[in-house]
Design brief:
Blueprint: H1 8-19, E1 24-25, H2 26-32, H3 39-51, E2 55-59, E3 65-69, E4 84-87, E5 93-95, E6 116-119, H4 122-125
Parallel strand pairs: 4-6
Antiparallel strand pairs: 1-3, 2-3, 4-5
Length: 126
């Protein structure tokens, strides 16, 4: 992974992701960090962490951007081509470790694909 200067702001964001079990929305991150940094700083650090392979992002319900920790990614390659699940009941969003086949499209090269599956999570199905 690329070396990122470990400022207090970067450390605060990384600490949130190290404690999180699921993805976090940018709105949630800004709210949790409002006493430590402004919204612009949160966005700037999220961009740097994504570019360096620490985080990956995807668009959830209502067009909201979500972030999750990467596994085995680096500055040159993201290996987070996996679907994400969003619970329509409680709002929980998580990375799924299942394979999804992206079809080959004639005369095109697919570079990025986002798959969002929505439904009820294991807690809400009970």
């Amino acid at each position: 992974m690329a070396i990122i200067r470990k400022t207090k702001s970067v450390e605060a964001l990384l600490t949130l992701f190290n404690k999180a079990e699921n993805a976090m929305s940018v709105v949630e991150l800004v709210k949790q960090l409002e006493d430590e940094m402004n919204k612009t700083t949160v966005y700037r650090i999220l961009d740097r962490l994504e570019e360096s392979g620490h985080l990956h992002s995807f668009i959830g319900k209502d067009g909201l951007t979500w972030y999750a920790k990467c596994k085995d990614c680096d500055e040159a390659h993201h290996h987070d081509a996996h679907p994400h699940f969003q619970c329509l009941n409680c709002g929980k969003v998580e990375c799924l470790s299942v394979d999804v086949s992206i079809p080959k499209i004639p005369k095109r090269e697919v570079v990025v694909s986002h798959v969002l599956i929505q439904g009820k999570c294991e807690s809400c199905v009970k």
